[in-house]
Amino acid sequence: MYNIKLMNKIEKSGIDHFDTALYNISETIENPDAYIVRSASLHNTEFEPSLLAIARAGAGVNNIPLDHCSEKGIVVFNTPGANANGVKELAIAALLLSSRNIIGGINWAAGLKGQPEVTKLVEKGKSQFAGPEIKGKILGVIGLGAVGGMVANAAFNMGMDVIGCDPYITVNAAWSLSRAISKAENYDEIYSKSEYISLHVPSLPSTKGLINKDTIAKMKDGVRIINLSRDDIVNSADMLEAIQNSKVACYVTDFPTDEMLGVEGVIAIPHLGASTPESEENCAEMAVNEIMEYLEHGNIINSVNYPTVNHPRNAKNRICILHKNIPNMLAQFSSLLSKKNVNIESLANNSLKDNAYSIIETNDDIDDALSEIQSYNGVIRAFVK
Ligand code: MLT
Predict the structure, then answer these.
(1) What is the Cα–Cα distance from 53 to 34, expressed in whole angstroms?
(2) Quick check: CB of 39 below 6 Å from ligand 1?
(3) Would the pLDDT of 367 be above 90?
(4) Using the 8-state DSSP alphabet, how is residue 19 labeled?
């Protein structure tokens, strides 16, 4: 039996994919083989020695200590694209909210409750909440992954002129992008040309404070900025100053921090990007499938700290080895197996930055080979499936 610990409430339709004859699932289970987490922070969690994998039902993994997980041989998965439509729809709403003063108007109208002749008051007072249409305006999209690409296409379909920039764009993402989206050579081109900017980059040391005093200075006066990615991509103090001096007309964030609340010009949404039944179901289902593939077959699909190795099963035994991406690892494994007269049926290997993963398949008995492999310098974790 495998033990799955739920670190948040996870959509039942996803959890139901686990075969209950093989999996125990609960929020308090001991000796977990895997966690499934949504937004709970795991930075101060003491991981059980039994823990092999963590699946995040969502795209961002800034709530998980990735380096620590890599060192311990804990494979971290995410669910890229599974909630992209939910986030895209909120981004389109954010573009409209940043432009038309709908929230201000709604709040004002609510305050008219009980006054005589409300309809007349509405018509008299509404002009204070006018705002421009987005059609024909220039939107710059920074980051053209699953969400950014969808936002670019949807905004174009609503009549915006869209330019996008992503130095790390994947072939699939490029194929998914409408040909009408213009390519910006760099972020500076986005800053200088856009009337609206939507941010779709992950939270990484390299993206921390991407939007700051200097980058804001390169933008058009009255720019509207949408951040449904993570709070630390924008320097809060610099953003507040830019709002105060009207350089930025509106900042919409799905990651409000204390200083952003109650500020005119800031629309603070409580991280609702993926809060749709569809996104929650898709993420839970993808996370569960990733965990099952890894625990049952050793296949790694959509990990953020170990490489993809999705190898069809061809033999009785597979030795799965998480190891450092350094010379001589495969040579050591194969020479040990040949000394033990173990025939290799198939071998799959891949690397991701400092980490690598190998699956070695054989129909022979492995005997004590596993413990020897585990003792090699550079091997982080090894097990048999
Ligand atoms: C994500 O990381 O996938 C989005 O921010 C949505 C979420 O965390 O729920």
Answers:
(1) 5
(2) yes
(3) no
(4) -
131 lines ligand 1 (CB under 6 A): no
**What secondary structure letter does DSSP report for 341?**
T
pLDDT tens string 69-110: 999 999 999 999 999 999 999 999 999 999 999 999 999 999
Rounded-to-integer distance, Cα 262 and Cα 146, Å: 31
CATH 3.40.50.720 residue window(s) in the chain: 1-83+275-305, 84-99+132-268
Classify each residue of 308-335 as buried b or exposed e, where b means 16 or more C-beta atoms within 10 Å of its C-beta: ebebeeeeebbbbbbbbbeeebeebbee
Tokens for 206?
């390299």
**pTM of model > 0.85:** yes
Whether 80 lines ligand 1, by a CB cut-off of 6 Å, is no
Provide the CATH topology of domain 307-385.
Alpha-Beta Plaits (3.30.70)
Tell me: the pLDDT tens digits for 117-159? 999 999 999 999 999 999 999 999 999 999 999 999 999 999 9
